[in-house]
């Protein structure tokens, strides 16, 4: 599953996932019927509007063994919110289908570490990096230190600790717009912590959070780049 | 219109229509199991800025007297054991003193019902050896005698052995507040000094 | 910030003002960081913390599921032990009951234990209207009362004040209401606490009527429990001849034994202590010890409305520890006043809408929009759920309440722009072909308007993003487009992001 944000704004991250998975011998496909998990609607309270999206998700992915997505947030939404939307729709068939698809969705680091059983994915990334654990990967999914294990195995990569790493960056979906002042205040503190590490690159597992923190870092002309975990793991000496 | 009681209960019933009640009480996990509960208790009480003295039964009087400043006016509950009372110079015995009278007293000496090692807590159930609730509240210094056999491991044991129909006071260190910048400061309205005398090797009463 | 929560603006506007107050942000950041560290340390030393949380949640669930029986039993137990039990449907009824007790004893003042329930119902203001002074005796509540301020935290209502501000309030206001602050008052917390001790002692010694809330009310024994630190609670519960306790009906615990997990969870979650300095329990009237006339007011005031919400009901498990406030990144930056209620922070963001009701046509349009803004006052980061000692899934309830807000407006004659945008987005996103066309269009527009891959300032709600943050332009070629063109073959032309 390539998230709607990746699809439209950061397609390179989707390509990185494909490259990484194929390098690890996984038969990766992109079912073109997929669109969006529906989280933007659900988290803003538009449950009825999310029903067709959940239906579409179920139809697009029902035949696959595993659904891998470069987003803790979207994986969390599929796992924890699709059931609620299906119940709201009052459609027992959809509820049953959702139970099946929800169980097969994996956030990228979960898939690599738990399903494929690898932490060294053969990546090369000679840069100073700090890592922000996004809230939904951390608390909704409980990915724990899997992303760190993956990053620590990347050749050339120097990982520096991010102060207050587990505090939310302030993105929060429509929160970033509905409560933009608070969102920016949270993001500004996150950006300050990122800059204090001296890292060249901020890495995280959700493009949405990176878009928010990166938007602040860019406006501040900080010179710190933001990159998705998948982009770092896909990089090799041959194809940096 | 129905009275408030009928209406509130009616709303509760309507709100829960179709919800089955859970009939059985819920068991909680076991508490902490320190190896030496008395040592653990002494350490935990001290951690919250109480003064702790451990002594043998023969030395209780001296330990209590040592916890009191020279010339302190002391009040005791009517049922305080005689051997402790004997160590005090002419204590006032509570016979229904007013709060204003107690406000002019410097210290109070009492026994306790039990103590909790894990949390460093003393529990009073206000029997005659502990006195009325006000007695251990208004004076600024509380000296409390805890027998080693009264120390239980953790909160579950305490809850299990207390009689809820008695008024209870759980005391964990001296009065304190965290209301200024969430920093803990000892000493507001309750006794600002808590002395705990732990008596080891005493015969259970 | 003075007076009353009535007429507060919706959360985003109130938050904007609060964010501009750098002193406030400094005070909050310092205080919440302190308490987070203390909580983490004492929670970390409990071996079975997760099992304890489950047990605490289960006790409160059991209490709620059988609430009618437990309330009836609580009343029977209390009456059997000499207490007088009253029921109050709403704030006005509860306030009248307390005022009536005070009046019958000719009291023109009462001393108060810190109590969320009495704050919620505005008891002090109601008593003042009857000519009865209600003295707050908790240090933080006293700071708020003397400063003609509003509470901003559940545990530490004056958390927004630092020591220098507190000193100034004591010097300025104590003399007006009793014993003045000493002239040489410093801003040392211990010195400030000593001044509060001196100031309040004369009030404790003369008070005829005490007023309290209760942390727990045990149904099978009629035992009420107050958990506190300073000893002001013990003073109010012990010295007056008459005691009135206002208890929300959700405070019921079925049996004495079931207090155990809650007494282990609350202090560690709340003040970050293994046990709070003082816990008082009393069961009706204790002969010759403490108040000999004991009243208990059982309060609804919206609790049955919350109970009727199957998802939201879990908010009634709350034991008012305030751990969720202390870890909330939104609370830490905007403080409690922005929530417009005595219940701020994550729990307030769900409890207030549940108590008031969403879409029930209650209240004026401003208070309606204030209440409806609260479920959105969260980034859904989940830190609150992680620390909640009774496992209230606050993010789940927030999302649920958001859906109730949306549903309440489905019948609006003029739909909100957000609703139109969401419907349009959902329509596009429900079908991959429509999405593909939209992406191709966006890619072309992005190329036209964006410089160096950054979207220019957006109009309308989008300005909330672009005023402070850069936004990338839509990719020239979406992932979908690239896949279609190359079949995902990596040698088939890299996609340029």
- By DSSP (H or I, 4+ residues per run), the number of helices of chain C equals 23
Shape of chain C: elongated
Largest interface: B-C, 74 and 100 residues
Low-confidence stretches of chain C: 492-497
Low-pLDDT sequence parts of chain A: none
**Total helical segments of chain A:** 14
CATH classification class of the largest domain in chain C: Alpha Beta
| H/E series of chain A | HHHHEHHHEHEHHEHHEHEH
Largest sheet of chain A: 4 strands, parallel
User: From the alpha-carbon coordinates, what is the Rg of chain C to the nearest angstrom?
Assistant: 26 Å
Write the layout of secondary structure elements.
The complex is a heterotrimer of chains A (240), B (205) and C (497).
Chain A: H1 4-8, H2 11-23, H3 39-44, H4 47-61, E1 67-69, H5 72-80, H6 82-89, H7 92-103, E2 105-107, H8 108-115, E3 128-131, H9 135-141, H10 146-152, E4 158-160, H11 175-178, H12 180-196, E5 201-204, H13 207-219, E6 225-228, H14 229-234
Parallel strand pairs in A: 1-2, 3-4, 3-5, 5-6
Chain B: H1 4-15, H2 37-47, E1 51-55, H3 60-66, E2 74-76, H4 82-85, E3 92-93, H5 99-103, E4 107-110, E5 114-116, E6 121-124, E7 141-147, E8 151-152, H6 155-161, E9 168-171, E10 176-180, E11 183-186, E12 193-199
Parallel strand pairs in B: 1-12, 2-3, 2-4, 4-7, 5-8, 7-12
Antiparallel strand pairs in B: 5-6, 6-9, 10-11
Chain C: H1 11-19, H2 22-44, H3 49-65, H4 67-80, E1 84-88, H5 91-104, E2 109-112, H6 116-120, H7 123-129, E3 133-136, H8 139-146, H9 163-177, H10 189-206, E4 209-212, E5 216-218, E6 223-228, H11 232-238, E7 242-248, E8 252-253, H12 259-270, E9 278-283, E10 293-299, H13 303-307, H14 323-327, H15 329-334, H16 345-356, H17 365-373, H18 383-387, H19 394-408, H20 417-429, H21 432-449, H22 463-466, H23 479-486
Parallel strand pairs in C: 1-10, 2-3, 2-4, 4-7, 5-8, 7-10
Antiparallel strand pairs in C: 5-6, 6-9
Domain LUD (chain B): 101-199
InterPro entries (chain B): FTHF_cligase-like_sf, LUD_dom, NagB/RpiA_transferase-like
Protein name (chain B): L-lactate dehydrogenase complex protein LldG
């Amino acid at each position: 599953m390539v998230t709607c944000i990746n699809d439209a704004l950061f397609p390179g991250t989707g390509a990185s996932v494909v490259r990484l998975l194929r390098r690890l011998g996984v038969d990766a496909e992109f079912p073109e019927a997929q669109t969006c998990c529906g989280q933007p609607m659900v988290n803003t309270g538009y449950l009825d509007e999310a029903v067709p999206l959940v239906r579409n998700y179920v139809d697009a992915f029902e035949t696959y063994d595993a659904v891998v997505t470069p987003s803790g947030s979207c994986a969390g939404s599929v796992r924890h919110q699709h059931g609620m939307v299906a119940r709201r729709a009052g459609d027992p068939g959809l509820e049953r289908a959702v139970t099946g698809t929800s169980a097969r969705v994996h956030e990228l680091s979960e898939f690599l570490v738990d399903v494929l059983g690898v932490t060294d994915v053969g990546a090369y990334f000679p840069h100073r990096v700090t890592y922000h654990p996004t809230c939904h990967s951390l608390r909704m999914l409980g990915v724990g230190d899997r992303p760190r294990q993956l990053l620590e195995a990347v050749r050339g990569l120097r990982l520096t600790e991010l102060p207050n790493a587990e505090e939310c960056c302030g993105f929060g979906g429509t929160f970033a717009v509905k409560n933009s002042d608070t969102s920016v205040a949270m993001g500004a503190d996150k950006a300050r912590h990122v800059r204090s590490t001296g890292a060249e690159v901020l890495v995280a597992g959700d493009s949405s959070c990176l878009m928010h923190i990166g938007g602040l870092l860019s406006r501040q002309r900080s010179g710190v780049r933001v990159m998705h975990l998948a982009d770092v793991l896909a990089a090799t000496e041959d194809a940096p | 219109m129905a009275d408030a009681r009928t209406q509130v209960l009616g709303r509760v019933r309507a709100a829960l229509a179709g919800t089955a009640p859970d009939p059985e009480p819920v068991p909680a996990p076991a508490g902490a199991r320190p190896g030496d509960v008395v040592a653990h208790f002494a350490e935990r009480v001290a951690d919250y800025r109480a003064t702790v003295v451990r002594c043998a039964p023969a030395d209780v009087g001296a330990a209590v007297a040592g916890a009191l400043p020279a010339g302190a006016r002391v009040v005791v509950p009517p049922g305080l054991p005689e051997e402790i009372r004997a160590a005090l110079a002419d204590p006032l015995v509570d016979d229904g003193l007013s709060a204003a009278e107690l406000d002019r007293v410097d210290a109070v000496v009492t026994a306790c019902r039990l103590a909790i090692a894990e949390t460093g807590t003393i529990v009073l159930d206000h029997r005659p050896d502990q006195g009325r609730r006000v007695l251990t509240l208004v004076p600024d210094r509380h000296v409390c005698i805890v027998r080693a056999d009264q120390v239980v491991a953790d909160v579950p044991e305490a809850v299990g052995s207390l009689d809820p129909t008695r008024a209870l006071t759980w005391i964990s260190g001296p009065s304190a507040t965290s209301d200024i910048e969430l920093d803990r400061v000892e000493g507001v309205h309750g006794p600002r000094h808590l002395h705990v005398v732990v008596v080891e090797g005493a015969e259970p009463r | 910030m003075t007076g009353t929560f009535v007429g507060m603006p919706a959360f985003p506007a109130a938050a904007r003002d609060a964010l501009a107050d750098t002193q406030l942000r400094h005070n909050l950041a310092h205080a919440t960081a302190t308490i987070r560290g203390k909580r983490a340390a004492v929670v970390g030393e409990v071996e079975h913390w997760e099992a304890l949380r489950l047990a605490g949640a289960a006790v409160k669930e059991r209490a709620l599921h059988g609430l009618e029986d437990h309330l009836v039993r609580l009343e029977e137990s209390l009456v059997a032990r000499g207490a007088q039990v009253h029921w109050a449907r709403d704030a006005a009824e509860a306030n009248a009951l307390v005022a009536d007790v005070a009046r019958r004893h000719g009291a023109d003042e009462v001393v108060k234990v810190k109590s969320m329930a009495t704050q919620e119902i505005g008891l002090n203001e109601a008593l003042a209207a009857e000519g009865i002074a209600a003295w707050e005796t908790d240090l933080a509540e006293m700071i708020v009362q003397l400063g003609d301020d509003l509470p901003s935290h559940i545990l530490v209502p004056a958390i927004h004040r630092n020591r220098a501000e507190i000193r100034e309030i004591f010097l300025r206001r104590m003399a007006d209401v009793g014993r003045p602050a000493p002239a040489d008052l410093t801003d040392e917390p211990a010195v400030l606490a000593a001044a509060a001790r001196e100031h309040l002692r004369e009030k404790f010694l003369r008070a005829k009527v005490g007023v309290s809330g209760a942390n727990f009310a045990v149904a099978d024994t009629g035992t009420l429990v107050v958990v506190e630190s300073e000893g002001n609670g013990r003073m109010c519960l012990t010295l007056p001849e008459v005691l009135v306790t206002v208890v929300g009906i959700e405070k019921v615990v079925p049996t004495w034994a079931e207090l155990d997990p809650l007494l282990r969870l609350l202090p560690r979650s709340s003040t970050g202590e293994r046990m709070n300095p003082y816990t008082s329990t009393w069961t009706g009237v204790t002969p010759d010890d403490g108040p000999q006339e004991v009243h208990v007011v059982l309060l609804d005031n919206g609790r049955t409305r919350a109970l009727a919400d199957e998802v939201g009901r879990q908010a009634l498990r709350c034991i008012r520890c305030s751990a969720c406030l202390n870890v909330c990144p939104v609370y830490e930056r905007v403080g409690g006043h922005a929530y417009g209620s005595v219940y701020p922070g994550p729990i307030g963001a769900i409890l207030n809408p549940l108590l008031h009701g969403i879409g029930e046509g209650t209240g004026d349009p401003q208070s309606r929009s204030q209440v409806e803004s609260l479920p959105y006052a969260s980034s859904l980061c989940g830190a609150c759920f992680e620390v909640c000692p009774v496992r209230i899934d606050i993010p789940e309830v927030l999302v649920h309440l958001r859906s109730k807000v949306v549903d309440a407006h489905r019948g609006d004659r003029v739909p909100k722009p957000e609703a139109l945008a969401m419907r349009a987005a959902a329509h596009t996103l429900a079908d991959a072909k429509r999405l593909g066309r939209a992406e191709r269009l966006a890619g072309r527009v992005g190329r036209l308007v964006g410089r160096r891959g950054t979207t220019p300032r957006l109009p309308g709600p989008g300005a909330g993003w672009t005023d402070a943050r850069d936004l990338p332009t839509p990719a020239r070629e979406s992932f979908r487009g690239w896949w279609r063109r190359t079949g995902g073959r990596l040698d088939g032309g890299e996609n340029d992001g």
